[in-house]
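Standup notes
- DV: blocked on the single-chain target, sequence here:
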Amino acid sequence: MKNVKIFGGIALVLLFVSSFAMGFKVGENDNLDNGYQVGDVATDFSLKNVDGKMVSLADFDTAKGFLVIFTCNTCPYARAYEDRIIALDAKYKPQGVPVVAIMPNNPSDKPGDSFAKMKERAAEIGFTFPYLMDEGQKVYPQYGATRTPHVFLLEKTKSGNMVKYIGAIDDNYQDASQVDEKFVENAVDAMLAGNEIDPKTTKAIGCGIK
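- DV (later): unblocked, structure below
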């Protein structure tokens, strides 16, 4: 019986490792079917920031693009990526691609994601970017976001803000020092250089939007 329990435990660990390894499958995009795909032009929005001001993409006159990241306070995956999101903003905002974070959860279902808690978390961690509430949950379905975090890289063009990459930030949410593939950084670098982005989509790993 003891051996059976040990074997069962090992099997569960192997299943988790296998699932995690498969999670960041390149070329797979799990956004909602009616959400944006690469090449689509994203509609602008006007959402309340933690400072009480309304924020739209149109406010960023000199931006070349945006890293729109759906994230939240309560998801352990989102928390694991907070420092990396701040680092992305520090690296790319001076190059014209700022982070714009959006909290998509319903606070009635997730009280820890209330606007008051968002303000507390932004101040505690030191967010350097807008942290917006998707009040009424109207924006995340347009994008097709399903997870926190879920990244949409947009490029500002004459036609509007075109979606260039959708998916995960990198391939290791557990340990930033063990990342092999920096999906978002590679995508932004390619976009700014005028090169083809590869991959254009990866599977976002995180908590389901509530």
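- Follow-up: The first helix runs from residue 2 to 23.
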